[in-house]
Amino acid sequence: MNFNKLQGMIAAPFTPMHKDGSINPDPIKEYADFLKTNNISGAFVNGTTGEGISMTINERKILAEEWLKTATSDFRIIVHVGGPSIEACKSLAKHAKENGAFAIALMGPNFFKPATVDILIEFISEVAGLVPDLPFFYYHIPSMSEVYLPIPELLSKVSVKIPNFAGIKFSHHDLMEFNQCLLIENGKFNMLYGYDETLLCGLVLGAEAAVGSTYNYFSPVYHKLWEAFNNGDLEKARKMQQLSVKLVVILDKYGGGVVCGKAIMNLLGVNCGPCRLPLGNLSSSEIDQLRKDLEQINFFEISEYL
User: Fold this and answer.
1) Which position among 31, 61, 138, 139 bears the catalytic label?
2) Measuring CA to CA, which residue among 12, 30, 2 is closest to residue 209?
3) pLDDT digit string (tens) for 211-227?
4) How many domains does the chain have?
5) Is 139 a catalytic residue?
6) Strand 103-107 to strand 136-140: parallel, antiparallel, or no bridges (unpaired)?
7) What is the pTM of this model?
8) Is 43 within the bounds of a domain?
9) Which residue out of 169, 193, 217, 262 is catalytically annotated?
């Protein structure tokens, strides 16, 4: 299918929750406005950062509906519909289409895993086939799904079987494989780079779009990185990437991108609330120390106009 490829930075938003762990859709409009103010070009909702796999089907539909209300021509919403149940995936895909999603995405089923690329294609074709006029993205995140099938082989086979297959959300460290994907069918597929801390590597290889969690709250650094790269200023681009790495080190210190990232959003005044079990939450003393660590890398000065 023909569609305008996604470009620029797409945020993977957190799911706002109440203190009891129930979802809280109320802040989503304000959250979307926050992202738009910072020149984010879209949102990839109900994915890893959004704790989508920890939600019920109904909760995911409610969240998708609220995010889809915020969509504009320059703020596109991609709804992640993946999970271990193909029937649930189908229901979520149809719901996303009915509510105006720009595209849908699906990660490899992570309990009973497909043994071959052909079986994976059969799985995703049943979902993508229900929404033939929507771009479909496969969400490759083997660190979570443990589906380590070769993506170049997938891309070499999907065009005939899945006409609306648009590309890959590529959240994997294998840069050679990412490069192979970019070369298939003369760059036909929209490759969404999924590792914020190595964004510069993706840009060098030819990525035109990226999806990530730290774009929620560190976008000024990435905008400067992207601009410097486009201007041929690799020294500045490297400096911006090094700032990103310093931030990710802090995230890892405080429970990772979801646990710590939600705490950072709360510090910035975007009410995302706590995480849902089995993820933990930071104590008040840990949040105080997190603030100090962020101050050490001048985080709040960099992000002061967010």
Assistant:
1) 139
2) 12
3) 999 999 999 999 999 99
4) 1
5) yes
6) parallel
7) 0.95
8) yes
9) 169
